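Pilot study result, target chain (495 residues):
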Amino acid sequence: MMISESEILAARILIVDDQEVNITLLQQLLREAGYRNITATTQPEGVCALHQKSSYDLILLDLQMPVMDGFQVLEGLKKIDISGYLPVLVLTAQPGHKLRALQAGAKDFIAKPFDLIEVRTRIHNMLEVRLLYNKLEVNNALLEQTVSERTKELSRTNLEILQLKDRLQAENIYLQQEVAQQYNFGEIIGQSVALSRVFSQVEQVAPMNATVLLLGETGTGKGVVARAIHSRSTRKGRPLITVNCTTLPATLIESELFGRERGAFTGSDARQIGRFEMADGGTIFLDEIGEMPLELQCKLLRVIQDGEFERLGNPRTIKTDVRIIAATNRNLADEVKNGRFREDLYYRLNVFPITMPPLRQRSNDIPLLVKHFVSKFNKKIGKKIDTVSKETMTKLQEYHWPGNVRELESIIERAIIITLGTALQVLDHFEPRGKTVEVSGEETKGLVEREHDHIVQVLKKTSWRIEGKNGAAGILGINASTLRARMRKYGIARQ
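Predicted structure:
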Protein backbone atom coordinates (compact mmCIF):
# COMPACT_ATOMS: atom_id res chain seq x y z
CA MET A 1 0.00 0.00 0.00
CA MET A 2 2.05 2.89 -1.39
CA ILE A 3 1.36 6.65 -1.46
CA SER A 4 2.26 8.48 -4.70
CA GLU A 5 3.93 11.87 -4.77
CA SER A 6 0.89 13.34 -6.52
CA GLU A 7 -1.35 12.21 -3.67
CA ILE A 8 0.94 13.90 -1.15
CA LEU A 9 1.06 17.18 -3.13
CA ALA A 10 -2.76 17.18 -3.38
CA ALA A 11 -3.15 17.02 0.45
CA ARG A 12 -5.12 19.78 2.20
CA ILE A 13 -2.92 21.92 4.45
CA LEU A 14 -4.01 24.60 6.94
CA ILE A 15 -1.61 27.26 8.26
CA VAL A 16 -2.57 28.93 11.57
CA ASP A 17 -0.48 31.96 12.62
CA ASP A 18 -1.35 35.48 13.81
CA GLN A 19 1.61 36.90 11.85
CA GLU A 20 0.95 37.49 8.12
CA VAL A 21 4.66 37.43 7.40
CA ASN A 22 4.95 33.86 8.71
CA ILE A 23 1.93 32.76 6.72
CA THR A 24 3.37 34.27 3.54
CA LEU A 25 6.70 32.53 4.10
CA LEU A 26 5.09 29.14 4.67
CA GLN A 27 2.74 29.49 1.72
CA GLN A 28 5.66 30.32 -0.54
CA LEU A 29 7.60 27.34 0.79
CA LEU A 30 4.71 24.94 0.20
CA ARG A 31 3.88 26.22 -3.27
CA GLU A 32 7.52 25.92 -4.33
CA ALA A 33 7.41 22.31 -3.12
CA GLY A 34 4.35 21.68 -5.34
CA TYR A 35 1.50 21.69 -2.75
CA ARG A 36 -1.73 23.06 -4.26
CA ASN A 37 -4.42 22.94 -1.52
CA ILE A 38 -3.17 25.49 1.03
CA THR A 39 -5.43 27.46 3.37
CA ALA A 40 -4.28 30.04 5.92
CA THR A 41 -5.90 31.88 8.83
CA THR A 42 -4.89 34.42 11.48
CA GLN A 43 -7.98 33.57 13.54
CA PRO A 44 -7.16 30.48 15.68
CA GLU A 45 -10.59 30.50 17.30
CA GLY A 46 -12.10 29.37 13.98
CA VAL A 47 -9.75 26.45 13.33
CA CYS A 48 -12.12 23.76 14.65
CA ALA A 49 -14.94 24.96 12.41
CA LEU A 50 -12.61 25.05 9.41
CA HIS A 51 -11.38 21.52 10.06
CA GLN A 52 -14.89 20.16 10.46
CA LYS A 53 -15.86 21.75 7.15
CA SER A 54 -12.81 20.79 5.07
CA SER A 55 -11.11 17.98 7.04
CA TYR A 56 -7.48 18.99 6.57
CA ASP A 57 -4.68 16.46 6.17
CA LEU A 58 -2.13 18.55 8.07
CA ILE A 59 -2.15 21.68 10.23
CA LEU A 60 0.83 24.00 10.73
CA LEU A 61 0.12 25.68 14.07
CA ASP A 62 1.86 28.60 15.82
CA LEU A 63 1.79 28.25 19.62
CA GLN A 64 2.19 31.88 20.73
CA MET A 65 -0.89 33.82 19.64
CA PRO A 66 -2.58 36.63 21.61
CA VAL A 67 -6.31 35.80 21.56
CA MET A 68 -6.27 31.97 21.58
CA ASP A 69 -2.96 30.14 21.82
CA GLY A 70 -1.99 26.91 20.07
CA PHE A 71 -2.55 24.74 23.16
CA GLN A 72 -6.22 25.73 23.22
CA VAL A 73 -6.49 24.93 19.52
CA LEU A 74 -4.99 21.46 20.15
CA GLU A 75 -7.52 20.78 22.91
CA GLY A 76 -10.36 21.76 20.60
CA LEU A 77 -9.07 19.56 17.78
CA LYS A 78 -8.90 16.54 20.07
CA LYS A 79 -12.62 16.85 20.78
CA ILE A 80 -13.67 16.88 17.12
CA ASP A 81 -11.08 14.43 15.75
CA ILE A 82 -11.34 11.62 18.31
CA SER A 83 -10.90 8.63 15.96
CA GLY A 84 -8.83 10.01 13.08
CA TYR A 85 -5.10 10.60 12.72
CA LEU A 86 -4.59 14.36 12.23
CA PRO A 87 -0.93 15.44 12.09
CA VAL A 88 -0.36 18.85 13.72
CA LEU A 89 3.11 20.40 13.31
CA VAL A 90 3.59 23.16 15.89
CA LEU A 91 5.90 26.12 15.33
CA THR A 92 7.23 28.18 18.25
CA ALA A 93 10.15 30.26 19.40
CA GLN A 94 9.98 28.64 22.88
CA PRO A 95 11.70 25.21 22.77
CA GLY A 96 10.58 24.60 26.37
CA HIS A 97 7.02 24.15 25.08
CA LYS A 98 7.91 20.99 23.12
CA LEU A 99 6.85 18.40 25.72
CA ARG A 100 3.64 20.21 26.59
CA ALA A 101 2.70 20.52 22.90
CA LEU A 102 3.27 16.81 22.27
CA GLN A 103 1.20 15.90 25.35
CA ALA A 104 -1.59 18.17 24.08
CA GLY A 105 -1.81 16.22 20.81
CA ALA A 106 0.80 17.68 18.44
CA LYS A 107 2.57 15.08 16.28
CA ASP A 108 5.80 17.05 15.76
CA PHE A 109 7.58 20.27 16.79
CA ILE A 110 9.81 22.81 15.01
CA ALA A 111 11.48 25.73 16.77
CA LYS A 112 11.64 29.20 15.23
CA PRO A 113 13.49 30.43 13.31
CA PHE A 114 12.98 27.27 11.34
CA ASP A 115 14.99 25.72 8.57
CA LEU A 116 12.89 25.64 5.37
CA ILE A 117 14.29 22.29 4.19
CA GLU A 118 13.52 20.74 7.61
CA VAL A 119 9.96 22.07 7.53
CA ARG A 120 9.40 20.72 4.02
CA THR A 121 10.80 17.29 4.95
CA ARG A 122 8.71 17.01 8.13
CA ILE A 123 5.54 18.03 6.26
CA HIS A 124 6.17 15.44 3.52
CA ASN A 125 6.72 12.60 6.03
CA MET A 126 3.69 13.48 8.17
CA LEU A 127 1.41 13.71 5.13
CA GLU A 128 2.58 10.30 3.95
CA VAL A 129 1.60 8.80 7.34
CA ARG A 130 -1.75 10.62 7.27
CA LEU A 131 -2.64 9.35 3.78
CA LEU A 132 -1.52 5.82 4.65
CA TYR A 133 -3.80 5.92 7.68
CA ASN A 134 -6.71 7.06 5.50
CA LYS A 135 -6.10 4.24 3.02
CA LEU A 136 -5.93 1.75 5.85
CA GLU A 137 -9.32 2.88 7.12
CA VAL A 138 -10.83 2.53 3.64
CA ASN A 139 -9.32 -0.93 3.21
CA ASN A 140 -10.61 -2.00 6.63
CA ALA A 141 -14.10 -0.84 5.71
CA LEU A 142 -13.94 -2.81 2.45
CA LEU A 143 -12.66 -5.85 4.32
CA GLU A 144 -15.50 -5.64 6.86
CA GLN A 145 -18.01 -5.38 4.00
CA THR A 146 -16.48 -8.42 2.29
CA VAL A 147 -16.51 -10.42 5.55
CA SER A 148 -20.15 -9.44 6.12
CA GLU A 149 -21.14 -10.59 2.63
CA ARG A 150 -19.25 -13.88 2.97
CA THR A 151 -20.82 -14.45 6.39
CA LYS A 152 -24.29 -14.08 4.90
CA GLU A 153 -23.39 -16.61 2.21
CA LEU A 154 -22.12 -19.05 4.82
CA SER A 155 -25.29 -18.53 6.87
CA ARG A 156 -27.43 -19.48 3.89
CA THR A 157 -25.19 -22.48 3.17
CA ASN A 158 -25.42 -23.66 6.79
CA LEU A 159 -29.20 -23.31 7.04
CA GLU A 160 -29.83 -26.92 6.01
CA ILE A 161 -27.26 -28.16 8.52
CA LEU A 162 -28.90 -26.17 11.30
CA GLN A 163 -32.34 -27.49 10.34
CA LEU A 164 -30.99 -31.04 10.37
CA LYS A 165 -29.43 -30.42 13.78
CA ASP A 166 -32.78 -29.17 15.10
CA ARG A 167 -34.51 -32.31 13.82
CA LEU A 168 -31.93 -34.55 15.49
CA GLN A 169 -32.32 -32.65 18.73
CA ALA A 170 -36.10 -33.03 18.53
CA GLU A 171 -35.74 -36.77 17.97
CA ASN A 172 -33.57 -37.03 21.09
CA ILE A 173 -36.05 -35.29 23.41
CA TYR A 174 -37.64 -38.52 24.60
CA LEU A 175 -34.27 -40.11 25.40
CA GLN A 176 -33.14 -36.98 27.26
CA GLN A 177 -36.35 -37.00 29.30
CA GLU A 178 -35.82 -40.63 30.23
CA VAL A 179 -32.27 -39.91 31.38
CA ALA A 180 -33.43 -36.80 33.26
CA GLN A 181 -36.14 -38.81 35.00
CA GLN A 182 -33.56 -41.18 36.42
CA TYR A 183 -30.73 -38.78 37.07
CA ASN A 184 -32.64 -35.51 37.03
CA PHE A 185 -30.04 -32.73 36.79
CA GLY A 186 -27.08 -34.59 35.36
CA GLU A 187 -24.86 -35.11 38.40
CA ILE A 188 -27.69 -34.50 40.89
CA ILE A 189 -29.18 -37.92 41.46
CA GLY A 190 -32.54 -38.48 43.15
CA GLN A 191 -36.31 -38.39 42.83
CA SER A 192 -37.34 -37.48 46.38
CA VAL A 193 -39.79 -34.72 47.21
CA ALA A 194 -37.08 -32.83 49.11
CA LEU A 195 -34.76 -32.87 46.08
CA SER A 196 -37.57 -32.03 43.65
CA ARG A 197 -37.94 -28.67 45.40
CA VAL A 198 -34.27 -28.00 44.71
CA PHE A 199 -34.71 -28.95 41.03
CA SER A 200 -37.61 -26.52 40.73
CA GLN A 201 -35.61 -23.69 42.27
CA VAL A 202 -32.63 -24.40 39.99
CA GLU A 203 -34.89 -24.22 36.93
CA GLN A 204 -36.29 -20.90 38.14
CA VAL A 205 -33.03 -19.13 38.88
CA ALA A 206 -30.58 -20.64 36.36
CA PRO A 207 -31.54 -18.43 33.34
CA MET A 208 -31.30 -15.28 35.49
CA ASN A 209 -28.14 -13.46 36.57
CA ALA A 210 -29.28 -13.38 40.19
CA THR A 211 -26.84 -14.22 42.97
CA VAL A 212 -27.54 -17.65 44.49
CA LEU A 213 -26.76 -18.76 48.05
CA LEU A 214 -26.58 -22.56 48.54
CA LEU A 215 -27.19 -23.66 52.12
CA GLY A 216 -26.85 -27.04 53.73
CA GLU A 217 -24.58 -29.47 55.50
CA THR A 218 -21.22 -30.55 54.11
CA GLY A 219 -21.50 -33.30 51.53
CA THR A 220 -25.07 -32.55 50.41
CA GLY A 221 -24.05 -31.64 46.87
CA LYS A 222 -23.91 -27.83 46.88
CA GLY A 223 -21.05 -27.85 44.36
CA VAL A 224 -23.03 -30.11 42.03
CA VAL A 225 -26.00 -27.74 42.19
CA ALA A 226 -23.69 -24.79 41.42
CA ARG A 227 -22.54 -26.58 38.26
CA ALA A 228 -26.15 -27.35 37.32
CA ILE A 229 -27.12 -23.67 37.66
CA HIS A 230 -24.16 -22.56 35.54
CA SER A 231 -24.78 -25.18 32.83
CA ARG A 232 -28.40 -23.98 32.47
CA SER A 233 -27.54 -20.27 32.47
CA THR A 234 -26.85 -17.86 29.61
CA ARG A 235 -23.20 -17.93 30.74
CA LYS A 236 -22.69 -21.66 30.11
CA GLY A 237 -20.29 -20.92 27.25
CA ARG A 238 -17.96 -19.11 29.67
CA PRO A 239 -16.00 -20.67 32.57
CA LEU A 240 -17.29 -21.70 35.98
CA ILE A 241 -14.47 -20.83 38.40
CA THR A 242 -14.54 -22.44 41.86
CA VAL A 243 -12.90 -21.02 44.97
CA ASN A 244 -12.96 -23.08 48.17
CA CYS A 245 -12.51 -20.61 51.00
CA THR A 246 -11.58 -23.37 53.49
CA THR A 247 -8.63 -24.76 51.53
CA LEU A 248 -6.85 -21.44 50.97
CA PRO A 249 -4.75 -19.83 53.71
CA ALA A 250 -6.20 -16.48 54.82
CA THR A 251 -3.04 -14.74 53.57
CA LEU A 252 -3.57 -16.04 50.02
CA ILE A 253 -7.34 -15.69 49.55
CA GLU A 254 -7.10 -12.06 48.43
CA SER A 255 -4.46 -12.72 45.76
CA GLU A 256 -6.35 -15.83 44.60
CA LEU A 257 -9.58 -13.87 44.21
CA PHE A 258 -8.27 -10.60 42.81
CA GLY A 259 -4.79 -11.47 41.49
CA ARG A 260 -1.43 -9.89 42.18
CA GLU A 261 1.43 -8.19 40.40
CA ARG A 262 5.01 -9.38 40.56
CA GLY A 263 6.58 -8.12 43.79
CA ALA A 264 3.23 -7.29 45.39
CA PHE A 265 4.48 -9.03 48.55
CA THR A 266 7.38 -11.18 49.71
CA GLY A 267 7.52 -14.35 47.63
CA SER A 268 5.37 -12.91 44.83
CA ASP A 269 7.83 -13.50 41.99
CA ALA A 270 5.30 -13.63 39.14
CA ARG A 271 2.13 -11.92 38.06
CA GLN A 272 -1.05 -13.89 38.86
CA ILE A 273 -4.49 -13.45 37.33
CA GLY A 274 -7.23 -13.62 39.99
CA ARG A 275 -10.26 -15.89 39.90
CA PHE A 276 -12.68 -12.97 39.36
CA GLU A 277 -10.70 -11.91 36.28
CA MET A 278 -10.63 -15.49 34.98
CA ALA A 279 -14.40 -15.79 35.48
CA ASP A 280 -15.23 -12.63 33.49
CA GLY A 281 -18.40 -13.31 31.50
CA GLY A 282 -19.00 -16.56 33.41
CA THR A 283 -19.76 -17.71 36.95
CA ILE A 284 -17.69 -17.80 40.12
CA PHE A 285 -18.58 -20.34 42.82
CA LEU A 286 -17.45 -19.29 46.30
CA ASP A 287 -17.63 -22.49 48.31
CA GLU A 288 -17.80 -22.22 52.12
CA ILE A 289 -18.17 -18.43 51.94
CA GLY A 290 -18.69 -18.37 55.70
CA GLU A 291 -14.96 -19.05 56.12
CA MET A 292 -13.92 -15.86 54.31
CA PRO A 293 -11.95 -13.48 56.56
CA LEU A 294 -13.91 -10.43 57.68
CA GLU A 295 -11.35 -8.00 56.22
CA LEU A 296 -11.88 -9.42 52.71
CA GLN A 297 -15.65 -9.38 52.85
CA CYS A 298 -15.82 -5.65 52.06
CA LYS A 299 -13.78 -6.20 48.87
CA LEU A 300 -16.08 -9.02 47.84
CA LEU A 301 -19.07 -6.75 48.49
CA ARG A 302 -17.56 -4.14 46.15
CA VAL A 303 -17.18 -6.69 43.35
CA ILE A 304 -20.80 -7.79 43.75
CA GLN A 305 -22.11 -4.20 43.84
CA ASP A 306 -19.87 -2.45 41.30
CA GLY A 307 -18.19 -5.25 39.33
CA GLU A 308 -14.71 -3.86 39.93
CA PHE A 309 -11.55 -4.57 41.93
CA GLU A 310 -7.77 -4.05 41.91
CA ARG A 311 -4.96 -6.55 41.76
CA LEU A 312 -2.58 -6.56 44.69
CA GLY A 313 0.29 -4.23 43.85
CA ASN A 314 -1.58 -2.39 41.05
CA PRO A 315 -3.89 0.61 41.64
CA ARG A 316 -5.60 0.21 38.24
CA THR A 317 -9.28 -0.71 38.59
CA ILE A 318 -10.34 -3.84 36.68
CA LYS A 319 -13.93 -4.36 35.55
CA THR A 320 -15.48 -7.82 35.61
CA ASP A 321 -18.89 -9.27 34.78
CA VAL A 322 -19.48 -12.40 36.81
CA ARG A 323 -22.40 -14.24 38.33
CA ILE A 324 -21.94 -15.11 41.99
CA ILE A 325 -22.93 -18.48 43.44
CA ALA A 326 -21.94 -18.89 47.09
CA ALA A 327 -22.27 -21.88 49.40
CA THR A 328 -21.94 -22.42 53.14
CA ASN A 329 -22.69 -24.99 55.80
CA ARG A 330 -22.91 -22.23 58.40
CA ASN A 331 -25.92 -20.24 59.55
CA LEU A 332 -24.90 -16.88 58.12
CA ALA A 333 -27.65 -15.05 60.00
CA ASP A 334 -26.06 -16.24 63.25
CA GLU A 335 -22.61 -15.34 61.93
CA VAL A 336 -23.88 -11.79 61.29
CA LYS A 337 -25.26 -11.56 64.85
CA ASN A 338 -21.92 -12.72 66.24
CA GLY A 339 -19.98 -10.16 64.19
CA ARG A 340 -18.17 -12.74 62.05
CA PHE A 341 -19.95 -11.91 58.78
CA ARG A 342 -20.89 -8.55 57.27
CA GLU A 343 -24.62 -7.91 57.31
CA ASP A 344 -24.58 -5.98 54.00
CA LEU A 345 -22.68 -8.83 52.28
CA TYR A 346 -25.14 -11.36 53.69
CA TYR A 347 -28.08 -9.49 52.14
CA ARG A 348 -26.24 -9.23 48.81
CA LEU A 349 -25.60 -12.99 48.77
CA ASN A 350 -29.00 -14.04 50.07
CA VAL A 351 -30.91 -12.99 46.93
CA PHE A 352 -32.05 -16.50 46.01
CA PRO A 353 -31.29 -19.07 48.73
CA ILE A 354 -31.50 -22.80 47.99
CA THR A 355 -31.29 -25.22 50.90
CA MET A 356 -29.88 -28.65 50.12
CA PRO A 357 -31.61 -31.42 52.10
CA PRO A 358 -29.34 -33.79 54.06
CA LEU A 359 -29.28 -37.39 52.86
CA ARG A 360 -31.20 -38.60 55.94
CA GLN A 361 -34.16 -36.50 54.74
CA ARG A 362 -34.21 -38.24 51.35
CA SER A 363 -33.45 -41.86 52.13
CA ASN A 364 -35.60 -42.94 49.17
CA ASP A 365 -32.83 -41.59 46.91
CA ILE A 366 -30.19 -43.90 48.40
CA PRO A 367 -30.85 -46.87 46.03
CA LEU A 368 -30.33 -44.59 43.01
CA LEU A 369 -27.16 -43.14 44.53
CA VAL A 370 -25.80 -46.57 45.41
CA LYS A 371 -26.42 -47.80 41.85
CA HIS A 372 -24.63 -44.74 40.48
CA PHE A 373 -21.61 -45.08 42.76
CA VAL A 374 -21.31 -48.84 42.22
CA SER A 375 -21.23 -48.26 38.45
CA LYS A 376 -18.73 -45.43 38.84
CA PHE A 377 -16.27 -47.36 41.01
CA ASN A 378 -16.68 -50.60 39.06
CA LYS A 379 -15.16 -48.76 36.10
CA LYS A 380 -12.54 -47.01 38.21
CA ILE A 381 -11.36 -50.07 40.18
CA GLY A 382 -12.06 -52.71 37.57
CA LYS A 383 -14.69 -54.72 39.48
CA LYS A 384 -17.96 -56.26 38.21
CA ILE A 385 -20.23 -55.88 41.22
CA ASP A 386 -23.85 -56.05 40.06
CA THR A 387 -25.79 -56.98 43.19
CA VAL A 388 -26.69 -55.14 46.39
CA SER A 389 -28.64 -57.26 48.86
CA LYS A 390 -31.92 -56.05 50.30
CA GLU A 391 -30.41 -56.28 53.79
CA THR A 392 -27.46 -54.06 52.79
CA MET A 393 -29.74 -51.51 51.13
CA THR A 394 -31.97 -51.42 54.20
CA LYS A 395 -28.96 -50.73 56.43
CA LEU A 396 -27.86 -47.94 54.12
CA GLN A 397 -31.31 -46.38 54.16
CA GLU A 398 -31.60 -46.61 57.95
CA TYR A 399 -28.26 -44.94 58.62
CA HIS A 400 -28.41 -41.23 59.48
CA TRP A 401 -25.45 -40.14 57.27
CA PRO A 402 -23.71 -37.29 59.10
CA GLY A 403 -21.38 -36.91 56.09
CA ASN A 404 -24.30 -37.02 53.61
CA VAL A 405 -23.76 -38.03 49.96
CA ARG A 406 -20.00 -37.59 50.27
CA GLU A 407 -19.90 -40.12 53.11
CA LEU A 408 -22.07 -42.54 51.13
CA GLU A 409 -19.76 -42.28 48.13
CA SER A 410 -16.72 -42.93 50.31
CA ILE A 411 -18.31 -45.98 51.94
CA ILE A 412 -19.40 -47.47 48.61
CA GLU A 413 -15.89 -47.03 47.19
CA ARG A 414 -14.32 -48.79 50.18
CA ALA A 415 -16.96 -51.53 50.02
CA ILE A 416 -16.19 -52.20 46.36
CA ILE A 417 -12.46 -52.40 47.15
CA ILE A 418 -12.96 -55.18 49.74
CA THR A 419 -15.75 -57.03 47.88
CA LEU A 420 -14.50 -60.31 46.38
CA GLY A 421 -17.60 -61.53 44.53
CA THR A 422 -20.30 -59.72 42.59
CA ALA A 423 -22.47 -58.80 45.62
CA LEU A 424 -21.56 -55.58 47.46
CA GLN A 425 -20.06 -56.14 50.93
CA VAL A 426 -20.20 -53.27 53.44
CA LEU A 427 -17.13 -52.43 55.53
CA ASP A 428 -17.05 -53.68 59.14
CA HIS A 429 -16.83 -50.20 60.68
CA PHE A 430 -20.07 -49.13 58.98
CA GLU A 431 -22.80 -49.56 61.58
CA PRO A 432 -26.24 -48.17 60.63
CA ARG A 433 -28.25 -46.83 63.53
CA GLY A 434 -31.91 -46.00 63.87
CA LYS A 435 -34.26 -45.88 60.92
CA THR A 436 -35.03 -42.42 59.55
CA VAL A 437 -37.41 -41.38 56.80
CA GLU A 438 -37.79 -38.33 54.63
CA VAL A 439 -38.76 -35.38 56.81
CA SER A 440 -39.07 -31.66 56.36
CA GLY A 441 -38.12 -28.92 58.81
CA GLU A 442 -35.62 -29.12 61.68
CA GLU A 443 -33.84 -32.29 62.76
CA THR A 444 -35.31 -34.05 65.77
CA LYS A 445 -33.45 -34.36 69.04
CA GLY A 446 -32.95 -38.09 68.38
CA LEU A 447 -31.05 -37.42 65.16
CA VAL A 448 -28.73 -34.96 66.89
CA GLU A 449 -27.99 -37.44 69.66
CA ARG A 450 -27.26 -40.21 67.14
CA GLU A 451 -24.91 -37.99 65.18
CA HIS A 452 -23.13 -37.04 68.42
CA ASP A 453 -22.72 -40.69 69.40
CA HIS A 454 -21.55 -41.75 65.95
CA ILE A 455 -18.86 -39.05 65.84
CA VAL A 456 -17.60 -40.03 69.30
CA GLN A 457 -17.52 -43.70 68.30
CA VAL A 458 -15.47 -43.06 65.17
CA LEU A 459 -13.09 -40.75 67.06
CA LYS A 460 -12.46 -43.46 69.62
CA LYS A 461 -11.69 -45.98 66.86
CA THR A 462 -9.11 -43.61 65.40
CA SER A 463 -7.63 -42.75 68.82
CA TRP A 464 -9.05 -39.24 68.36
CA ARG A 465 -7.10 -38.66 65.19
CA ILE A 466 -9.07 -36.22 63.03
CA GLU A 467 -7.05 -35.74 59.85
CA GLY A 468 -5.06 -38.00 57.55
CA LYS A 469 -5.76 -41.14 55.60
CA ASN A 470 -7.07 -43.09 58.60
CA GLY A 471 -8.47 -40.11 60.49
CA ALA A 472 -12.06 -39.74 61.67
CA ALA A 473 -12.87 -37.09 59.05
CA GLY A 474 -11.90 -39.47 56.25
CA ILE A 475 -13.96 -42.32 57.71
CA LEU A 476 -16.98 -40.04 58.10
CA GLY A 477 -16.47 -38.69 54.57
CA ILE A 478 -16.34 -35.05 55.66
CA ASN A 479 -13.73 -32.27 55.79
CA ALA A 480 -11.56 -32.02 58.90
CA SER A 481 -12.78 -28.43 59.42
CA THR A 482 -16.39 -29.64 59.30
CA LEU A 483 -15.68 -32.38 61.85
CA ARG A 484 -14.07 -29.88 64.21
CA ALA A 485 -17.11 -27.61 63.82
CA ARG A 486 -19.42 -30.53 64.70
CA MET A 487 -17.27 -31.35 67.73
CA ARG A 488 -17.54 -27.75 68.95
CA LYS A 489 -21.27 -27.74 68.26
CA TYR A 490 -21.88 -30.91 70.31
CA GLY A 491 -19.25 -30.19 72.96
CA ILE A 492 -17.21 -33.25 72.06
CA ALA A 493 -13.74 -33.34 73.64
CA ARG A 494 -11.12 -36.04 73.88
CA GLN A 495 -11.85 -38.39 76.73
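One observation from the pilot: Residues 170-184, 432-445 have pLDDT under 50 and may be disordered. A full batch analysis is planned for the follow-on phase.
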